[in-house]
TrEMBL record:
This is Riboflavin biosynthesis protein RibD. It comes from Parasulfitobacter algicola. In the C-terminal section; belongs to the HTP reductase family. Converts 2,5-diamino-6-(ribosylamino)-4(3h)-pyrimidinone 5'-phosphate into 5-amino-6-(ribosylamino)-2,4(1h,3h)-pyrimidinedione 5'-phosphate. Binds 1 zinc ion.
Amino acid sequence: MSLALSLGRRGLGRCWPNPAVGCVIVNNGRIIGRGVTAKGGRPHAEVIALSQAGGMARGGVAYVSLEPCAHHGQTPPCTDALIKAGVSRVVAPLTDDDPRVSGKGFAQLRAAGVQVTTGVLADQAVLAHKGFFLKVTQGRPMVTLKLATSFDGRIATANGESQWITGPKARRWVHAMRGTHDAVMVGGGTARADNPSLTVRDLGVQHQPVRVVVSRKLDIPTHSILAETARDIPIWICHGTDADPDVCRKWADLGARLFPCDLIGRQLDVASVLQNLGNAGLTRVFCEGGGALAASLLNAGLVDELVGFTAGLALGAEGRPGLGAMGIDALNDAPRFHLIDTQNIGGDVMHRWGRI
């Protein structure tokens, strides 16, 4: 099961809107097939593993990192494939939250005489499938918020110099994290100030995440890198319902996909932003700021994982803070996270936190 979960994690960022599932088929103590959900979500991991195993799957055991699907979608159910292949046992960590599957896959397997074992490494599977489960149960993707700051929490000097606070190994690590998410998201201010490409680079990665910009008025330069590459790598823009229609048309003509989102007062409602992204199929979003967007997500309780990269330099009070104003007067009102992991990445400290 540990191998199945590891295989599944290789598919993160590639197979949305489907979950990233891994499957390992064993017979007589020997691995005869393995698979991970393919890019775009099909074929499923079980089908790939069974194809490798061929006739040797009969009487074998299938270790699957999530309950096999039991419904007819664009492809037949994986339960049918497992039953037809003649596996004697299926081991899975937990039930799929998708109501089209939930419990039905296990029930179909048992009805066909296949032994089913559940609960194996379930805690790891819950983490691996968090984004998919959130999309199913809450209609929104999982959000990872990344902040790269000085020791005193600044993202730039007073005059805006920010390249580079953290070192090359930390930046490479961030690129790897981008690759495990369906989308990379920034606010309009970051898009204007940094002119980013928001791509995964220098890692030999073939796929690219969707690039999402959150900008109420859609006031992003059309001579930017994002605009110039919109037809090559998807760019989605979440804007206010009051954005200028002419500007919207201009971005649509460039190849961008536009999502009108609700407002709260004069600000975009980040819950509406995430609902739109979830409706479009995204399960995992990697937010890289800026400060106002990050603060809004934290205030709304919509950050599921917080990743910090802290450098050993201090910029002082005049430096630009990593977070915008949050209106917090009491410590009890501040969002808190629990520490998951900490590592030395090329002299910078990476610390990863989960929601309490």
